[in-house]
Amino acid sequence: MYLLTQIGFIVLTLLCLGLILKQLRQALSQADLSVKQQKRIWVGTCLGLLVWLSFLSLVSLSGFFSNFSGFPPRIGIVLIVPLITILILTFSRNINSLLKVIPPQSILYLQSFRAIVELLLWLLFIQNILPVQMTFEGQNWDILVGLTAPVVAYFSFVRRSWSRVVVILWNVLGLLLLANIVIIAMLSMPTIFRVFMNDPANTIVAQFPFIWLPGVLVPIAYSMHFFSLKQQILSR
User: Fold this and answer.
1) Could you tell me the sign of the dihedral formed by the alpha carbons of 176, 203, 146, 103, in that order?
2) Confidence at residue 32, expressed as pLDDT on a 0 to 100 scale
3) Closest listed residue to residue 1, CA positions, set 114, 126, 117
């Protein structure tokens, strides 16, 4: 079963990135950008993702992130780098051109992956590899975002029977639930900040391929919220 969860995280991460790149390519062909700008964004995105995935994989396999005794904890790099990158991207001028042509429901549909993440986390829990508070049996309710994402997307943007207020509130709630589990995960690690003392400690996320959870999947989740909210601002 452990091998199944490993394969699950690898496949899910690559699938999400593949869908994002597919949508980006379509958006670039429709956006009001020069050919040079399109090429720069496409090559930069592909290269950046490849470098980041390789960095996370190689460094986690070396055991670097599994050392929780230092201050600040080394795994903080995995959280801070993508957050800064996504924030810069969210407020960039080029993202506005892309968000204007990306179907808003596509961004929400992608968030469905979070339900699968929660199932994979639960599989780790029943193997006594992950603490209960990081699952839906404990204090992690992020699965609600994954389950409701296609519903909100359909009724808000396909049927158009729900107002933009619903989309905004759903995105805000999604960010809060994501922040909740990220904080719980950090407080479950064997660092000086540890609050949850039950075993096992949250160390698995520092190992490959689970390092892709905080380093790739979590950034995908909050970036989709940022982009969806930005779309609502641009559509006013």
Assistant:
1) positive
2) 86
3) 126
Please write down the HEC assignment for all residues of the chain: CHHHHHHHHHHHHHHHHHHHHHHHHHHHHHCCCCHHHHHHHHHHHHHHHHHHHHHHHHHHHCCHHHCCCCCCCCCHHHHHHHHHHHHHHHCCHHHHHHHCCCCHHHHHHHCCHHHHHHHHHHHHHHCCCCCHHHCCCCCCCCHHHHHHHHHHHHHHHHCCCCCHHHHHHHHHHHHHHHHHHHHHHHHCCCCCCCCCCCCCCCCHHHCCCCCHHHHHHHHHHHHHHHHHHHHHHHCC
Question: Are the C-beta atoms of 117 and 185 separated by less than 8 Å?
Answer: no
* List of long-range contacts for 58-65, beta carbons under 8 Å, 24+ apart: 60/206, 60/207, 60/208, 60/211, 61/208, 65/206, 65/207, 65/211
> Hunting for tokens 């994002």 — which residue is that?
20
Rounded Cα distance, 103 and 205, in Å = 33
Residues 6+ apart with CB under 8 A from 217: 9, 12, 13, 16, 113, 117
Burial of 99 per CB tally in 10 Å (0-12, 13-18, 19+): buried
Rounded to 5 degrees, φ, ψ at 142 are -65, -20
10-residue mean pLDDT series, the chain (236 residues): 94 98 95 90 96 98 93 92 95 91 97 98 97 97 98 96 95 98 97 95 97 98 97 86
CA distances from residue 53 to 78, 86, 90, 218 in whole angstroms, order as listed: 11, 16, 21, 14
